[in-house]
Amino acid sequence: MTKKRNGLPRLPHLLGIEGLAPDTVSGLLDLSESYIGQNRSLDKRRDLLTGRTVINLFFENSTRTRTSFEVAAKRLGADVINMEVASSSVRKGETLLDTAMTLNAMLPDTLVVRHHESGAVNLLAQKMKCAVINAGDGQHEHPTQALLDALTIRRRRGKLEGLLVAICGDILHSRVARSNIHLLNIMGARVRVVGPPTLMPTDVDRMGVEVHFNMRTGLKDVDIVMMLRLQTERMQGTYVPSISEYFRFFGLDQEKLKVAKPDALIMHPGPMNRGVEIDSEVADDLDRSVIHEQVEMGVAVRMACLEALIGTRRNAPPDLTTGALL
Amino acid sequence: MSGEILRGLPQHVGSTAYINARIVDPAASAEYRGAVLISDGKIADFGPNLFASGAPYGIESVDCGGLCLAPGIVDLRVHTGEPGEEHKETLESAAIAAAAGGVTSFVLLPDNEPPFDDASLIEFVARRARQIRLANMHAYGALTVGLEGEQLAEMGLLAEAGALAFTDADRAVGSAQVMRRALYYAKAFDALIVHVPQEPTLSTGHMSSGEMATRLGLTGIPPLAEVMMVERDLRLVEMTGGRLHLSKISTAAAVEAIRAAKARGLKITCDTAPPYFALNDLAVGDYRTFGRLTPPLRAEADRAAIVAGLQDGTIDAIVSDHRPQDQDSKRVPFAQALPGGIGLETLLPVSLELVHNGALSLPRLMQCLAAAPASLMRLPAGRLAKGAPADLVLFDPDSAWKIDRAGMHSKTKNTPFDERPVQGRTMATIVGGRPIWRDARFTPAAAAA
Questions:
Q1: Domain of B124: which CATH number?
Q2: Do residue B30 and residue B167 come from a single domain?
Q3: B400 and B444 fall within a common domain
Q4: Range of B292's domain?
Q5: Contact at CB, B332 and A93, closer than 8 angstroms
Q6: Is B321 a catalytic residue?
Q7: Is residue B210 within 8 angstroms of chain A, CB to CB?
Q8: Of B171, B177, B236, B322, which is most buried by a Cβ count within 10 Å?
Q9: How far apart are the C-alpha atoms of A257 and A237, rounded to whole Å?
C-alpha cells in the first residue's frame, strides 16, 4: 500500500469500517477536517476531481445521504450522476450485476451505492472496475455515517479515546449501529448498546459492547447518546408492542437523559421520528443536540472519502494528477 | 476429476473377478486384502481367501492394485432440475456426477416443478433411469400435496408406483397435527417419512444466528429451530409408532435429543450432510452464497457435535444433499440467493476426512454412506453379500487433490467446498457388475489369461 497525504493508505473501496486501521480512520477524519473551512467559505468549490465521474446508485430511497454525496462530489469539481433504482420495479437481485456491467462500460471513477440487502455493495464491488463507496447496505454497514459521527464527536470533545458512548434503539436492523460500534472500538471508545431485547442482535456483546435493556442503566454517565431511528419499514412481525410503549421506555427525553453526564451530546443519524425514539425538546436542545452539525460534517467526510478513493481505480493508467495533488 | 463415463457397455453377463483389493465390508465392520467375484451382475463370492493364490484362470479379472473396494454409495438426498428446471441439472447430468462420485444408487427429492405428489412422476423417474442406464435412480413421494404441509399426498398410490419413502424435501411440516396424521397413516403401508426438522416460523432468516450473522447484518436462524422440531417429532413417533427419519441434522442440541431418544429405545434414525461436519458458519465469510444452505451452516461447537454423533452412531447416515443452483440463483445478494449446494462428487472425498483425522473407521464410514441408507430404504444394495447386486465403488483413499468447481460434472458449480484440499478419489464405479465410471488414473493391467 502506498501512503498518501495524512499517512492515509490507498483504499480500493470503502465498503465498511470493520477491519480499518486506527491510522486510516484518523487519517480520514483529519482529511475531512480540512474541508470544513472550505465548506463554510463563500467559494466552496475546488478542482481536485475535475473531469472525474461519480455515480450515485441508490436502490433504496434516501434524500439526505444522496444529497450529501452529491454536494460533496460537486464541491470537489466532479461530474455527478444520480441513479435511483426503485427496488420494487426490478425483480430482486436480477439486475444488480447487469447494472454493474453497464456502469463499468461508462467508465465511472467512483460508484456510491446504497442497497437494501446486506452484502449487496460487496458483491457489486467485486465486479466494478472503479472505487466503490458503501452508502449503506441492508443491516450491514454505513461507513460514512460512522465517520461523520466520529468527526462530530472529535470536534466537540477533542478525542474519541476513552469516551463512553451509548447507542440506543433498534440495534438489530441498524447498519449505523454496526459501523459505529466498529469505529468506536477501533478508536478506543467504550460502547454500550441500549434497547429492547427483541431489537438486539444475537451475540452482539461479542462485537465488544456492553448490552443494556433499559435506558436508566444504559445512559448512566455516558458522554455521548446516539439515538437510532426505529426502522418501522423493516419491522416484520412484532418486535415492540406499540410506538407509545416504545417511546415510554426507550424514547429519549429530558427525564431519561438526567443520568447521563451533564454535558452529554445527543446525536441522531436522521431522519428523526419525533415522539417515537426522541422527544422534540431533546432533539432541539441547542446546548446538547448536535444533530444538524452531523449533517454538516457528513459533507466534509464524504469529500474526504471521495478524495481518498478516487484515482485508485484498478487497471487505471498511472495518474500523475492525483499523485501530484495528494 | 477426469475420467470417462462408460455407458455403452451391455448388461453384465458371465463372471468378472476384482482381485488384489482392499475390501471394505461395512456390515462385518471389516477391511482386508481380498477379492470380489461378480457373476451376471450380482456378487457371487467375496473374501480374503478368494483367488488368494493369484488371478483366476479363464475368467475376466481386474487387478485393483490394493485400492479400496466397497459397496457403492447410496445417497438419500439428491435434487435435480428435471422436470422443471433442466437448466440447473437433468437426471442425466446428475447420474453422471453420481457415477464420478462413486454413488451407485440415489433417491430423488420430490420438490420439482411439478412436485412428485402424483404417481405418474414416480413412473417418469423410473423410465428415465432405464434410458440413462447409469446409477440406480429412485424417488421419494411428496408427503403432502404440493409440499404445502396441509393435505396428505396419495402415499399408497405413490408407494405402488415405486416411491421409496415420503418427504416434503427441505420444507418442514409446521403443523403437528398434519405430521401426526402422516405418521399414523403411513403405518398402513409401513412407509418411512423423511423430515428436515426446522421449526418454520423460526427459520425465515438467512444464516445461523450468532456473531457472524450479527456482523454481516444478515437475519439469523436460531439453532433452537432444529431441536424444537426434533423434540416435537420424537413425541409424535412415540405416540404413533410411525417410522421417521430425520434428515440433515446440524446442531449439537438435536444430536443430544436424538441420542437420548435412541437410548430410551425409540425407533428413530437420522442423517447429516458433509457441510455440517466439515464446515461452520465462517464459510459464509464475505457473503459467499455457495455457503447458503438449508439448514444453515452452524457454529464450530455444532460441527464438532455432528462428528461426535457420527462416531457414536447417533447419526446413522451421511447424504450428499445435492442441490444445483445456477448463477442467477447464487450471484445475487446473500439474502436473495437460493439455498443449496452440489454434493454428489464431493461426498466421498469430504467424508473421507473423517477417516483421515481418526474420527471414523473406513468400514464405519461406508456404513454411513452405503449400508445404513440402503437398509433404511430397504434396497438390496449397500452391502457385500452373495446374491446382492454388484454395485461397488473402487477408490483410492489417499489420493490428494483440490476440489475445483470447474471440474464438476454437474451442470451447475455451486459447491460450498470449492478449493478445499481433500484426500480420496473414486477410481471406478460399478453398477450391476457393469463399470459406469473409470478415472483416467486407473488403468488396470488386463490380468485375464
A1: 3.20.20.140
A2: no
A3: yes
A4: 71-376
A5: yes
A6: yes
A7: yes
A8: B322
A9: 30
Q: Which residues, given as ranges, of chain A have pLDDT below 50?
A: 1-3, 88-89, 93, 312-326
The 10 Å Cβ neighbour count of residue B154 is 16
B window 266-295, beta carbon within 8 A of A: 286-287
- CA distances (Å), B412 to each of A253, B408, B417, in order? 56, 8, 14
The answer to whether the CB of B410 falls within 8 A of the CB of B345 is: yes
- B23 forms beta bridges with B32, B69
Q: Could you give the CA distance from residue A326 to residue B206 in angstroms, rounded to a whole number?
A: 42
Burial of residue B43 (CB within 10 Å: 0-12, 13-18, 19+) is: buried
- Considering only alpha carbons, which residue of chain A is nearest residue B285? A119
Would you call A203 and B332 a contact, using CB atoms and an 8 Å cutoff?
no
C-alpha cell at B355: 477417516
Q: What is the pLDDT of residue A256?
A: 97
- List of chain B residues whose C-beta atoms are within 8 Å of the C-beta of residue A122: 286-287
Report yes or no on B13 lying in a domain.
yes
Q: Is the pLDDT of residue B445 over 70?
A: no
CB B148 within 8 A of CB B115: no
| Confidence (pLDDT) at B393 | 98
pLDDT tens track for B107-155: 999 999 999 999 999 999 999 999 999 999 999 999 999 999 999 999 9
Task: Say if residues A60 and A114 touch (Cβ distance below 8 Å).
Answer: yes
* pLDDT tens profile A105-159: 999 999 999 999 999 999 999 989 999 999 999 999 999 999 999 999 999 999 9
pLDDT of residue A237: 62
Is residue A160 within 8 angstroms of chain B, CB to CB?
no
Instruction: Kindly list the strands in the beta sheet with A79-84, ordered across the sheet, starting from the edge strand earlier in the chain.
Output: A79-84, A53-58, A110-115, A131-137
Grid cell for residue B90: 437433468
Treating both helix axes as pointing N-terminal to C-terminal, what angle do B252-263 and B224-240 enclose, rounded to 10 degrees?
20
Same-domain pairing of B180 and B285: yes
- Say what the pLDDT of residue A312 is: 46
pLDDT in tens, B146-165: 999 999 999 999 999 999 99
Q: How many Cα atoms within 13 Å fall on the side-chain side of residue B45? A: 14
Q: How far is it, in rounded angstroms, from Cα A229 to Cα B43?
A: 70
Distance from C-alpha of B421 to C-alpha of A136, rounded to nearest angstrom: 36
Q: Report how far residue A298's alpha carbon sits from residue A149's, in angstroms, rounded to the nearest whole number.
A: 8
**Alpha-carbon distance B438 to B428, whole Å?**
4
Residue B384 lies in a domain: no
Say if B245 falls within a structural domain.
yes
Is B301 a member of any domain? Answer: yes
- Using the Cβ of B300 and the Cβ atoms of chain A, whether some distance falls under 8 Å is answered with no
Structural domains counted in chain B: 2
B400: domain CATH number?
2.30.40.10
Shared domain for B272 and B137, answered yes or no, is: yes
- Residues B62 and B148 grouped into a single domain: no
Among A9-13, A209-213, B3-7, B403-407, the minimum mean pLDDT is found in A9-13
* pLDDT at site A241: 87
- B89 and B152 share a domain? yes
Same domain? For B314 and B443 the reply is no
